[in-house]
Amino acid sequence: MQVTSPVRPALVTSGKTVSDITHDICKPIEAPPTRSWLIAFGISVLVFIYGAYCLWYTWYEGIGVWGLNKTVGWAWDITNFVWWIGIGHAGTLISAILLLFRQKWRTSINRAAEAMTIFAVMCAAVFILAHMGRPWMAHWALPLPNSYGSLWVNFNSPLVWDVFAISTYFTVSLVFWYLGLIPDFATIRERATTKIRRAVYGALSFGWDGSAKTWQRYEAVCLHHLYFQFTP
Amino acid sequence: MKDTTKKYWKGLEELNNEPEFLKQAQNEFPDYLPIKESSGKDTSESSGTDRRDFLKLLGFGVAAASLAACEAPVKKVIPYVNKPEEIDPGNAVWYASTYMDGGEYCSVLVKTREGRPIKIEGNRLSKVTWGGTSARAQASVLSLYDSARLTSFYAGKSAKSKAEADKEIIAKLNNLNGGAIRIVSSTIMSPTTKKAIAEFAAKYSNTEHIQYDANSVSGLIKANKASFGKAVVPSYDFSKAKVIVSFGADFLGTWISPVEYAAQYAKNKKLGESIKKNSTDNEFLLARHYQVETNLSLTGCNADFRLPIKPSEEGLYVAALYNEIVGGLSVNAPKSEILSKAAEDLKNSKGKSLVVSGSNDVNVQILVNEINKALGNIGTTIDLETPSYQRQGDDERMAGFIEDVKAGKVAAVIFYNANPVYDHPMGKELGEALSKVSLSISFSDRMDETSSKCAYVCPDFHYLEAWNDAEPKKGYYSLVQPTISPLFKDTRSAQESLLVWTGNNTDYYTYLTNNWKQNILNGGDWNQALHDGVYQSSGSTQVAIVSETAATETAVSTDLNSIASAIASAKSSGLELKVYEKIGLGSGSQANNPWLQELPDPISKATWGNYVAVSVSYAKDKGLKSGDVVSVTVDGKEAFKLPVLVQPGQAKDTVSIAIGYGRTNAGKAGDKIGQNVYPLLAYSNGTLKYNRGGVDLKPTGDFEEIAQTQTHQTIMGRAIIQDATLPEYITDSAAGRFYPKVTTADGKKVAPKDVTVWWEHEKPNHLWTMVIDLNSCIGCGSCTISCQAENNIPVVGKKEVINRREMHWLRIDRYYSTAETWSTKKEHGKDKYFKGDATAWEYPEENPEVTFQPMLCQQCNHAPCETVCPVAATTHSSEGLNQMAYNRCIGTRYCANNCPYKVRRFNWFKYFDNDKFFMNTSMNTQLGRMVLNPDVTVRSRGVMEKCTFCVQRIQEGKLTAKKENRRPVDGEILTACASACPTNAIMFGDINDASSQVWNQLSEENKKRAYTVLEEVNTRPNIAYLTRIRNKQA
Question: How many structural domains is chain B composed of?
C-alpha cells in the first residue's frame, strides 16, 4: 500500500502497487536468467576472452607488440585510460553532482551509473597494468612496507599521484554504490527462499532493519560524508 | 566499589563451596577445557594431533612447500683448477694489436676479460692513427665471435682435417707441371706475410701474387708512377694543409686511411682563446676545405664549400683548377665561383695546401699531381718518400688474372682475404670459370661467394687470435698478437698454411719473430715492440709483389694535352651513376656484422640496406619519394630493383648506390641485404671506374621502406646547433651563440638558469662533464659502435628500426641547413611549401650545409626524467650522473616521454635468447655471448636504459686510483665514446678538477663557445657543445 497525500503526486502510478514494484525489481535476481540476458552475456564473454587474450599476448611478448617507439612512449594506453576514467566520471556525476543539485530524476539511473563507474575504473586500471614493461612488479608503485632498505615511491611523480587518485576514486565509487545498495540487499534478504541467498544477502545488507532511526543515520552518512566530503 | 556485604558468585559450585571448585579455584585456567598438555612421558595419553598441532603442521607444511617452490636457480660456478697466472677474474688484461682488413688499418688495444677480447680501443702510441678508431675497427671484436665462421678445413662441402688437406694440396701443387699459380689477395700490409708468399713462390715456380682492392685507387698509383716514377700511394698530411681541395676523395670516411686523415684534419679544426691569441693568420686559423663531388659524402658534410658535379665532369673541373693555377690546357673547362675561390686560396698557400682526388682515372690523377707540383705540396703535405702501403691493388693485373682463368690458363689459385666473386665486377664470370682451375684454395673464414666455389677452404684466423705484423707506411710497423687462443683448433693461420705447403714447418709465431729480429727490429727490443704494438724503424722490408711483369700494362702518357682531351671526351650526358663506399660496411667483407649493418649511415641515417640516392630536383621532376622502388637499368638492361632515397646534396642528374650490399654468402645477418652494385663497375683504360653513364631508373610502383633512424632533417629554427663563420668568431668568440631568455612574473627577462623551483644536488667530490666540439665531430660513428660494444646494447633488426626502436644510446644527429631564413619566410607568403608557419624549414636546400651532433643522455642536473618515475628507478648521483636502476624499473616509460632530448631507450622485447632477434648475435648465440661486457647488465624486457657516462669505467677508474692512494688523473677515466673518437671531438672529465681538459675548455679556452642544447628548458645538462665555426664568409 502506498501512502498518498494531497500535497504531492503519487509516487507509483498506473495501477501498480508498491509491492508490485518490489516484485518487478527483484525478479531479475530471483528468477533464472532470461534468453536475451544469456545471449548478451555470451557475447560479452566472447569479447572478454578476446580482450584477455590480447592482454596475455602483450604481457607475454612485451610492449613491442604495440605501436610505440622511442619518441612516443604512450599512445592508446593513456588515451584509453583517460577515456575510461571519463566514462566513470559520468557515473559519479549522476549520483553525486545531480544529488547536490537535487535532481530527483537521477534515482532511476544512478544505480546503473554507479555500477558502470566502478567497472570503468577497473577498465582504466587494466590499462595501467597493461602498459607497464614489467607488470609483475606493479605493486612497487604502491607505498607498501618493504625490505629494500625501505624504499618509498617517488611522490614527485604524477604517476604516483595517479595511483592515489585512481585508488581513492575507485574506493569512493565502491562505497557510494554499496551504501546505496544496502536497503535493497535487505529487501532481497527478506524475500530470500534458500539458505545461501539468505546468508549472502544477509551479510551484504549489513544488518539493515529498515527502522526510522537507521534510515536517519543512513541519510546523514550519505549526504554529509559521501556527497559533501568525498565528491570534491 | 565500597565494602558491601553483598556476595557475588559465579556459579552454584562457588556458592556451595563444592570441593571440585575449591580444587580448581587457584588455577587461572580451570581444567574444564579439554586442553591436553602433553608431557613427553605420557605420549600414550595423547589423542593424536589435536587442533593446535594440526595448525602448526599446516603452517609448517605450507611454508616448506612455498620455500621449496621458491628455489633459486642453480648456477654452476667452476673455479680454475690451475689459474692462469695472467688472468685475474674481474681484472681486464690489455694487449696491443692491429686491426687490418685489406688496406684498412688501425692500431688498437684489445681489452680482454677472463681470456676473451670484449672491446677495442685506439692505441695512442701509434703515430699513424694516434689512438683513434673507426666504426669498423670497433665492430671487429664481434666478427671474432661470428657463427658463420668455418670451424675446420673444407674440401668442397665436407670437412677435412688439416693434415689430410695439407697432404692433398701439397701433392696437387707438386703435380702442376709448371702451370700458373696465382695468389690473389687484397692489399697485404704485412711484410712477414709477403715474405712467406715469396718463399712459396720460390718453391713453386710460376707463382704470381696479385693484389686487388674492392675500393681501388689503382689509378692514383699508376699516375704517381707516371708523374714521379714511384708506383705508390703517398703519405698525406692534412694537418699541414691550410687549404684542402678534394675532388670526390672521402678522406674522412673511406679513402685509403680515414682514421689517420681524420686525426690530422682535426688538428686544424680546433679553436680556443689561446689559439686565437697565438694566431698569425686569422683567415686560416682553421683550414679551409673545398669538396667537389657527386654524392654527399662524410667528407663533403665537413667541407666549408661544396660543389656538386657529375662524375664524368670531374676531370674537367680538375682541368679548370689546373688552368686557374698553372694555365695552358685547352679544354672547355666549366666556370665555377667556388673553384675560382679555391684556386685563389691555393695560390696563396703554396706548400701549405693539398689537392686530392678519389677518381680512379689515371688522367685525372696525373693532372692532380701536376697541380700539387705547381703548388709546391710535394714534400710537405704529400710525402712520396714515405709511401703508404694501404692500397697496393692493381686493377689491370686483376683483370688480366680473371681473363686468364676464363681462358683456362691458371692451374692453381689461392685466395687470401679476397672475395672477388662478390666484390669484383667480373666476379660472376670468375665464379663460373673457377671450375677450370684444377686447384683452388681460399683462406676465407667462411663459405663466402668465392670460397664456396673453391676446391679447398682453409679458414684463416681472425686477427684477434693470430700473430701477424703490418707496415701501413714505410718505416711505421705494428704487430698483431693473439688475444685469445684460436677459437677453432682445426683452423690455421693462412701464413702458416703457406709455410707448411712450402715445406717449412716453422710455426708462424717463430717465423714472425725471426723476421723481426733479423730484418725489422734493427737492434730494438722485441718485447717492447710487442708491448707497444707499434714500432718505428728506418728502411723498409716491404717485399715487392712477386713478379712485377704485368706485360700488358697499359701505357700512361703524361702529355697534358692528350690527357685534357681524354678527360673532355669522358663527359657524358644523361643520368650518371656514382658508386661509393659507406663507412659502415665498406667493401662488404663485414656484411655479417650486425653492429655495422645497424650503424646508421652518417648522412642518410639508413640502416640494413642500400638504396639509390637521387637529388631533390630529380625526385620532384619524376614524382619520386623515398622508398619508391625503381628498376635500375644500365644500357637498357635491368640490373636490380632498389628503393630510392631523396638525398639533399646529390648532384643534379646523378644517382649514387653504395657497394658492400647484396651479399649471398655472408651469414645469417648479412645475406640478402640490399643489392650488389659491383657488377655495375666498368673496367677501362687499365682501372676500374666507379661511375658510369647510360643509367636509368624506372619506377615499379612498389614501395619498400628504408630503415632510417632519423627522418626529420632540419632543426626548425631551434637553437640546437649554434654556428658561425670564422670571421665572426675572430671578432667575437661568442659568435653564433643564442641566449634564450624567460620572462618572469614581474616582466623581467632573465636567463633560464636564474629561475628554478628545484634545489641543487650536492656534488662534493667529482662532477663528470662532457664537452663535445662540433667543429671536430666528423660524424664517423666510431663512438656509436664503441658504446654498443661497451654497454651490451642489442641490435634490433630492420623491421624494428623502421618502427623507430633502435637501441643505440648515442646517436649522431645530422642536420641539413635550409634556404629559408626569417626574412625569406616573410617574403614567401603564399609559397606552396609555405603554410605561414615553420613548415618551410622542413625542406633542406639542394646543396645544404651539414652539421653532425652526437646526442646522448645529457645527465641533466634538473632532470625531467627523475621527477616523473613512479618507483624512483632513475635518480641523481652525487657526482652529477643521472643513474638508471634497471632492477627497479617497472617500465611505465614516463621518463622517456619527459625527456626533451629523446635519449632514453626502452626494451620493447626480450632481445636475448629470442629467435625473433637472431640478428642480435651478441645475445642469441653461444659464441656471440662471449663479446658481452661482464661489467654491464644485460637488460631484461620492459626496462628503460640510457647512456650512463660509462659508470662502470668511472667506478673502475676511481677504484684504481683509490688503491694507489691518489686522486684520478684527467684522461684516465674516459667514456667509451670519448676514447673511440679519432678527432678528440668528445672530451670527458671531472670539472671539479681544475687540471682537467673539460675544466680548461669550459672555463678558459672555449668558455664563450660552449652552450647546452635546449637551454630554454632549463634542464642544466652536464654536456656542453662547442659552436660550429666554418671557414667562410657569412
Answer: 4
Residue B424's Cβ-side half-sphere holds a number of Cα atoms within 13 Å equal to 31
From A178's Cα to the closest Cα of chain B, the distance in A is 31
Number of domains in chain A: 1
Residue B155: its H or E element = strand B153-155
On whether both B993 and B879 belong to a single domain, the answer is yes
Confidence of residue B496 (pLDDT cuts 50, 70, 90): very high
The verdict on a CB contact (< 8 Å) between B894 and A73 is yes
ipTM metric: 0.90
State whether B877 and B973 are in the same domain. yes
3-state secondary structure at position B492: coil
Calculate how close chain A gets to B801, using CA atoms only, in Å.
10
Supply the pLDDT for residue A21: 85
Residues 6 or more apart whose Cβ sits within 8 Å of residue A110: A94, A95, A98, A99, A180
Contact of B386 with B540, CB cutoff 8 Å: no
Closest residue in chain A to residue B908, using alpha carbons only: A64
Q: Domain of B289?
A: 218-388
B943: closest CA of chain A, how far (Å):
6
Phi-psi category of residue B991: left, alpha or beta, with phi > 0 → left and psi -120 to 50 → alpha: alpha
Question: Are B311 and B434 contained in the same domain?
Answer: no
Buried b / exposed e along A12-34 (16+ C-beta atoms within 10 A): eeeeeeeeeeeeeebeeeeeeee
Q: Which residue from B805, B870, B902 is facing A153, i.e. has the nearest CB?
A: B870
* B942 chain-A contacts, CB cut-off 8 A: 62-63, 132-134
Helical segments of B17-95, H only? 19-24, 51-69
Identify whether residues B773 and B672 lie together within a single domain: no
Q: Which residue of B has its CA nearest to A133?
A: B942
CA-based nearest residue in chain B for residue A59? B942
Closest residue on chain B to A66 (Cα): B908
Q: Which residue has the cell 685509403?
A: B256
Q: Please report how many Cα atoms fall inside a 13 Å half-sphere around the Cα of residue B565, on the Cβ side.
A: 4
Separation between Cα atoms, residue A187 and residue B809, nearest integer Å? 65
Q: Which residues in chain B have Cβ-Cβ distances shorter than 8 Å to A68? A: 893, 906, 908
Tens-digit pLDDT profile for residues B631-684? 999 988 999 999 999 999 999 999 999 999 999 999 999 999 999 999 999 998
* 3-class secondary-structure state, position B416: strand
pLDDT digits (tens, 9 = 90+) for B139-158: 999 999 999 999 999 998 89
Residues B788-834: tens digit of each pLDDT: 999 999 999 999 999 999 999 999 999 988 776 666 655 554 444 44
To the nearest whole angstrom, how far is the Cα of B662 from the nearest Cα of chain A?
Answer: 29
Q: Which of B904, B908, B940 sits opposite A64 (nearest CB)?
A: B908
Higher pLDDT residue, B837 or B906? B906
| Owning domain of residue A155 | 75-230
Cα atoms in the 13 Å half-sphere on the side-chain side of B494: 28
Residue B59 has pLDDT above 80, yes or no: no
Measured CA to CA, the distance from residue B453 to residue B421 in angstroms comes to 9
B57 within domain boundaries: no
Let me know: does B139 contact B591? Beta carbons within 8 Å. Answer: no
Of B869, B894, B910, the CB nearest to A62: B910
Q: Count how many pairs of residues, chain A against chain B, have C-beta atoms within 8 Å.
A: 104
Across the interface, whether the CB atoms of A70 and B872 are under 8 A apart is answered no
| Chain A residues in contact with chain B using a Cβ-Cβ cutoff of 8 Å | 61-64, 67-74, 131-135, 137-138, 140-141, 151-154, 156-160, 163
Nearest residue of B to residue A142 by CA position?
B871
